[in-house]
TrEMBL record, chains A, B:
EC number(s) stated in the UniProt entry for this protein: 4.1.3.4
Organism field: Luteimonas aestuarii
Any one GO molecular-function label of the UniProt entry: hydroxymethylglutaryl-CoA lyase activity
Protein name as annotated: hydroxymethylglutaryl-CoA lyase
Taxonomic placement: Bacteria, Pseudomonadati, Pseudomonadota, Gammaproteobacteria, Lysobacterales
Gene3D superfamilies in UniProt: Aldolase class I
Annotated family: Belongs to the HMG-CoA lyase family.
Keywords: Lyase, Metal-binding
Class in the EC hierarchy, top level: lyase
Amino acid sequence: MSRSPTSVRIVEVGPRDGLQNEKAIIPTAAKIELIDRLSRTGLRSIEATSFVSPKWVPQLADAAEVFAGIDKRDGISYPVLVPNETGYARAREAGAREVAVFTAASEAFNRRNTNAGIDESLQRFAPVLERAAADGVKVRGYVSTVLGCPYQGAVPLAEVVRVAKALHAMGCYEVSLGDTIGVGTPAKAREMLRAVATEVPMPALAVHFHDTWGQALANLLACLEEGVAVVDAAVSGAGGCPYAKGASGNVASEDVVYMLHGMGIRTGVDLDLLADTGRWLSALLGRDTGSKAGKALAASG
Amino acid sequence: MSRSPTSVRIVEVGPRDGLQNEKAIIPTAAKIELIDRLSRTGLRSIEATSFVSPKWVPQLADAAEVFAGIDKRDGISYPVLVPNETGYARAREAGAREVAVFTAASEAFNRRNTNAGIDESLQRFAPVLERAAADGVKVRGYVSTVLGCPYQGAVPLAEVVRVAKALHAMGCYEVSLGDTIGVGTPAKAREMLRAVATEVPMPALAVHFHDTWGQALANLLACLEEGVAVVDAAVSGAGGCPYAKGASGNVASEDVVYMLHGMGIRTGVDLDLLADTGRWLSALLGRDTGSKAGKALAASG
């Protein structure tokens, strides 16, 4: 418990990780409004969109328009996903000042997800990291499937450590460790984070949990106790996992903030405004919010 | 972490705490089938029903028929709720060999819930405990609202400790500490359990979390780390809180078992059979299961 942080930075990934899996076509204006609403909640990091090829992720084909349209506030970073140099160039053209690259700890997953092996994807990132350094652009790195893979099953811990270390060594200021299919449990999440932290300093690590098996907040608690202080989450629990029918999405930002505040850990986020935004998004998507705290707040308000 | 138990006993409360808040009329035969299905999962404690006055809980007015109808297996305890001596007599007549009494740490809640103050309710239990001791009947004690009350808000920790200690001193072999409205967060849950454990031995304590704010598994993890080894849960997350619109029910047994097994903590429960039962119950109630692990298992199966 003594290692738990006194404040946590939430990286809100709803506009990207949440919306990229939606079947419905979401108007560009609504995406912009979502980000602008999130900007008013006190969040400091909002992943805005992805400059992956529209062939792969048609849902975010309007990335440039979205990025141009949002009201970029001082003190808030709006990272965008880029798969390679082409994506980086598009992101820069749109005005992005922080980008994120992504690979996996599972070779099988990375091949299916990006049509490249892990090492090949790292090689693709090298020129992105070089250009970003020259441009003064911050780069975040994602490692997927750190606690399990839908294709290969178990993922060797050593691979998670190796890939996270490589991203950090290449210049990623922060590496986000993602349980993409939400299969992890607290002891395994803790063991994974401890292992990575032997090679990458804890302040450069973030955790990213999906709530597919209902374990996200418990896993997060275990990782907080290890000292992690950056947490990815998506308002209203937006986003599904395209690889598992019935799977739920990211851990809901509202539930994370409620837990952290209840533990006396600061986030700077106004929970009421965040929950309002979650309900607005859920209404837009025509579904119940995936945030229990959001639901409870609505019932008690 | 070192204090985490190596095995946990799940007290399945779905047939009672889950069904008592249902609006739909559930046939007696279905209640019996639910318990019989649960008996085949490896659970060792299944709270079967409540001998509270049918005026208060009409949903469980068939308590005697349910208790008579279930296939009582060796090695499984089937406690039933009793509010007073009258309820105890009815429970005994039906053949109950374990009962549970209940009060709250919040005076306001207890008055609304049972029309009696806390001390008055403890006085009511005294003759029940005496008769139970003479009859060789085990008595479990519940303390509600240990982390917050829908009427009075904050609940003094000293009251939680006092009430838990009183129940234990009166002869309850186990005291279950309930976050009835699911408002707790891990640090508070841990602090509460630690405080109670200074007066009641940890092996005589259980925790009972509702997932209203999405915190149940995280709270449970914090309490496991303190050494608690008995956990109340309801299959499919059955049960709502009648005091908060939109509130979800008990923590889902499936999610608890998935977490515990993932941490190498034994429960003796077959998760697949439990999840089957959860889906059977959800279909009966005409709704989606409230268990994310149950949903994920169905999708992957």
